[in-house]
Amino acid sequence: MTDLGKLDDADYPAFATGQAAELLGVQQAFLRSLDAAGVVSPDRSGGGHRRYSRRQLELVVRLRAELDQGHTLAAAARIVGLQDELATAHEEISDLRERLNAEDEGLMTGGSQVSDST
Fold first, then answer.
1. Is residue 1 a part of any domain in this protein?
2. Which domain range does residue 58 map to?
3. Where residue 47 sits, what CATH number does that domain have?
């Protein structure tokens, strides 16, 4: 019996090169070139065949969009990497703001208030 939970895992390497290429509308050679360049590194099956996850396919789509805008592969990879770093930074800032707001609210409603009348 297979573990169907893996189908929900965006990092599970479920797609062979041919399947991935067909889904994305690209040539298999394009996917192999991304692997050779070290930009997208798919897992390997027991027989050594490339296996792509949904997250890797999303990365390929993003890279392809940058390439279609005329960027080199190195530039496209850098752009996508910087976009990911920026998104992570925004998430961290948002989390920190929420924590700070929660602490501020706790100070205002809790018994830890400092009185101005001394």
1. no
2. 10-100
3. 1.10.1660.10
Whether the full predicted model's pTM is greater than 0.90, yes or no, is no
Q: What's the total number of domains in the chain?
A: 1
Residues 46-88 pLDDT 10s: 999 999 999 999 999 999 999 999 999 999 999 999 999 999 9
Contact 31, 17 (CB under 8 A): yes
Average pLDDT over residues 90-113: 85
φ and ψ at 43, to 5 degrees?
-70, 170
Instruction: For 43-90, give the DSSP string.
Output: EE-TTS-EEE-HHHHHHHHHHHHHHHTT--HHHHHHHHHHHHHHHHHH
The answer to the question of residue 86 being in a domain is yes
